[in-house]
Structure formats: structure tokens, C-alpha cells
Design goal:
It is a single chain. With about 425 residues, the chain is α/β, with parallel strands linked by helices. The protein folds into 2 domains: about 240 residues, Rossmann fold (3-Layer(aba) Sandwich); about 180 residues, Four-carbon acid sugar kinase, nucleotide binding domain (Molybdenum Cofactor Biosythetic Enzyme, Chain A, 3-Layer(aba) Sandwich), CATH 3.40.980. It contains 14 helices and 18 strands. Strand 6 and strand 7 form a beta hairpin. Helix 2 packs parallel to helix 3 and helix 11 crosses helix 12. The longest helix has 21 residues. It is globular, with a radius of gyration of 21 Å. The mean pLDDT is about 95.
């Protein structure tokens, strides 16, 4: 294994894996720390965790367990992947996990420095002067300030990350990045001499990420969104290849399960409905009242699936989400809907669905766990950061299941229909 990756949620893991596959790496994604051998050979393994919103000590414990497993497989470099919107809180978990991994690696490699950048220009996430932009607006004006679990109110990544780190946080700005590998390495040496342990890196284009890649060769730990991944495979002598994304032929019925309440997913739900496709809305208050919404949703879907894809969603506007959270509590509302959507996803597969789109990080994680999926092979890209995958699971014997784990903020408005067309 050349590259060992630790991702803080399931959709983010496939986002990273997608970029590695496009750059030529054969990638397997494991759901949690593997307890069995990998299904196939891989240049990179992405261990997908659900640590983004866990208490920091639990996130650290799980991340260190993933690190130990990856080291035991011979990983030459470790990559800690977080969201391109830097989803986090003042307590973590980006800073605490980064420093825990640095501490663990320091004993073996002497590692005392790493970089941090969520830049992903293909999805309009750029970092300039240490500030994170989503499209043309700062992060805290992009809608992320209303995120139900990790509201982002500060776009200054140096300042924000410093609140989570005991090490000093610095900046490698765009002027340095534009000069390429030598200038970046010189800036790293300068920051290390100043006692800086983590440096936010500017990137406003893929060219910046490709210039950054060679400067990271040999760095024991890289922390980033998925964008940096496009510049790493070449460090291992790997070039892009179509064979890296080969998956079995797609069969079976089609469905979408959506729990994300991001602006992008709200648009995707509306586009699917406006196209005349069948959609079923999961009402959180009905679930809380004890109504068997899972049974209702599956009974509704059963006769419709033979005619094409169906959508089952709890996606809602920010004001509706806040109202539900106000009545049920933030954590209780989220956990309740995750359980419900996971049960629905399991029921859909039992009805013969073999092509499944899961929208939203927490939703995807819950559904994958309910389906007892432990490994996935990463295939072709649908939209930047979102690939089709294939998994073997007892719920879909013998042919397995094609699925895509879509981050809430990713994808064009027609993503839900385009995904199935792309797979076909």
C-alpha cells in the first residue's frame, strides 16, 4: 500500500477515493477499520470513519486505530481527509485529530509539521490568503453558517484552526504556491524554524494543487480535503488510467435516499420532483410521534420501482430543520432520522434495488452500516467528488450493490437523474 487515508465521514471518503482513482490509483474504501482482508489489491486504502461530529476524544481514538492498521499494511504516507467546507466546531475535530496523528507519527518519523487545506477548485472550494471561499463568497456567507451540526461562522482558516490546536498555525500563501515545489519547501522550512506545526495552504486552482503535490513527497502526514489528492499519485510513479475505475456492469432497480439539508441537496430534491419523478417525504415529527414511516415509505416505493428511480427524502429548508430541532433536540432529531433512512435503505435493497444513491454524510454512513457494507471498490466519477462504487453485501447476493455516497454540498441540480444515466 502506497497511501493510507483516514476520512472523517463516509461521503468524504468516497470524495477522496474518487480523486485518487482519477489520478490512476486502484482504491478500496473500508467502512471503519477493517476486520478482514481487503477484497482486492489497492494502491491506496481509504478508511471511512464517522468521527466528524463525535466528541474529540472518541474521534482521536478511532483515528489512531485506523492509523495503526494502515501502518501495519505498510502505508508509506498517511492522509487525514476532512470536508472541503472545513466542517468543524471550536472543539474539533480537525485540529485534535491532526495533532493526535502527528504525535503518533512523531515517534517513528520525527514528524513535526503538516499542511492543512480544504481547497477543491473543481467544486468551487478555494483558499486565498488563508480564507475559505465557496464559489464567490466566504464560507460563513455560503449557507454553511446554518449547518445544523457544524455551523461555520469564520472563513479565516488560520484563526479558526488555531482555536483547535496547541501547535502554532501558519500560512503558505498563493504567491509561494505559484512558484512551485522549491518555494513551497523553502516556506515549510521557514515555518518550521519559527515553531509552526501546521500550515494552511492557499489554492485557487487545480494547478496550485498540482504544484503543491511534489512538495508533499515524503511528508509523513498530509491533512486536507480531497483536492490535494490529485497531486499525490505521481509522487509514487502512478499515472491516470481508465482501468483504475472499472466496476461490474450495473443491474437492478434504482433509488435515492436523501437526508442532507444542504442548499445543493435541496435543489437536487426539487429538480427531481419537478422532473415528474416519484418522491416520498419523511416527516421527522411523524417519526417522533411513533408512526411507522419506514413501512409507509417502502409500501409506497414497491409498485413504483419497476418504472424507474424513486426518491425518499428528509431533506428540508433551514427554517424547517431548526423548528424540528427546537422540538426534538439537535442530536435526537439527527439520530432519529438517520435510523429511519437507514432502515428504508435496507428495505429498498430487499425490494431489489441494486443502484442506490445516498445523499448526505451522516445519512450515507448510517445506511452503509445498516447494509453491513465493509468495503467498496471505487469507480467512475458522476460529478466532481462523487463516484459510483461497488460493494458486496449479504443484502444484495450474489451480484452486489452499486452505490454512490454524495456529500450534501456536491453535485449539479440534476444529479439524482444524471447518476443513473452515467452508470448505464
Amino acid at each position: 500500500m502506497k497511501l493510507g487515508c483516514i476520512a472523517d465521514d463516509f461521503t468524504g471518503a468516497t470524495d477522496l477515493a474518487n480523486n485518487l482513482v482519477r489520478a490512476g490509483m486502484r482504491v478500496v474504501q473500508a467502512m471503519g477499520v477493517p476486520m478482514q482482508p481487503l477484497d482486492s489489491d489497492a494502491d491506496a486504502v481509504v478508511v471511512a470513519l464517522k468521527t466528524r461530529t463525535l466528541p474529540a476524544n472518541e474521534a482521536i481514538e478511532e483515528s489512531l486505530a485506523a492509523l495503526r492498521w494502515l501502518q501495519a499494511q505498510g502505508a508509506q504516507q498517511i492522509y487525514f481527509k476532512y470536508c472541503s467546507t472545513f466542517d468543524s466546531t471550536a472543539q474539533g475535530n480537525i485540529g485534535p485529530v491532526t495533532e493526535a496523528l502527528m504525535d503518533a507519527l512523531a515517534d517513528e518519523t520525527g514528524s513535526d509539521f503538516t499542511i492543512a487545506t480544504p481547497a477543491f477548485p473543481d467544486n468551487q472550494r478555494t483558499v486565498f490568503k488563508g480564507h475559505l471561499f465557496v464559489g464567490d463568497v466566504l464560507l460563513n456567507e455560503s449557507g454553511m453558517q446554518n449547518h445544523p451540526l457544524t455551523p461555520m461562522t469564520d472563513a479565516n482558516l488560520v484563526r479558526f484552526l488555531q482555536t483547535q490546536c496547541r501547535r502554532s498555525v501558519g500560512l503558505i500563501d498563493y504567491k509561494v504556491v505559484a512558484q512551485g515545489e522549491t518555494a513551497i519547501r523553502e516556506r515549510i522550512a521557514e515555518l518550521r524554524a519559527q515553531g509552526v506545526g501546521v500550515a494552511v495552504v492557499d489554492a485557487i486552482s487545480n494547478d496550485d494543487l498540482l504544484r503543491l503535490g511534489p512538495a508533499l513527497k515524503g511528508m509523513p502526514l498530509v491533512t486536507a480535503g480531497s483536492g490535494v489528492a490529485i497531486g499525490l499519485p505521481a509522487n509514487f510513479g502512478i499515472a491516470p488510467s481508465n482501468t483504475a475505475s472499472a466496476l461490474p456492469a450495473a443491474i437492478g432497480l434504482q433509488a435515492v435516499v436523501s437526508g442532507s439539508c444542504s442548499l445543493a441537496t435541496n435543489r437536487q430534491v426539487m429538480a427531481f420532483i419537478k422532473s415528474g419523478q416519484p418522491a416520498f417525504s419523511v416527516d421527522a415529527l411523524q417519526v417522533a410521534a411513533g408512526v411507522d414511516v419506514t413501512r409507509q415509505a417502502l409500501a409506497w416505493a414497491a409498485p413504483l420501482l419497476v418504472h424507474g428511480p424513486v426518491l425518499i427524502y428528509s431533506t428540508a429548508q433551514a427554517n424547517t430543520v431548526k423548528m424540528v430541532q427546537g422540538r426534538l433536540g439537535v442530536e435526537q432529531a439527527g439520530a432519529m432520522l438517520e435510523r429511519t433512512l437507514a432502515a428504508i435503505a435496507h428495505g429498498l435493497v430487499a425490494l431489489g434495488v441494486r443502484q442506490l444513491v445516498l445523499a448526505g454524510g451522516e445519512t450515507a454512513g448510517a445506511c452503509v452500516q445498516a447494509l453491513n457494507i465493509t468495503q467498496m471498490k471505487i469507480g467512475l466519477q458522476i460529478d466532481p467528488g462523487v463516484p459510483w462504487c461497488h460493494a458486496q453485501t449479504e443484502a444484495a447476493i450474489p451480484d452486489g450493490l452499486h452505490l454512490t455516497l454524495k456529500s450534501g454540498n456536491f453535485g449539479t441540480d440534476d444529479f439524482f437523474t444524471k447518476a443513473f444515466t452515467r452508470l448505464a
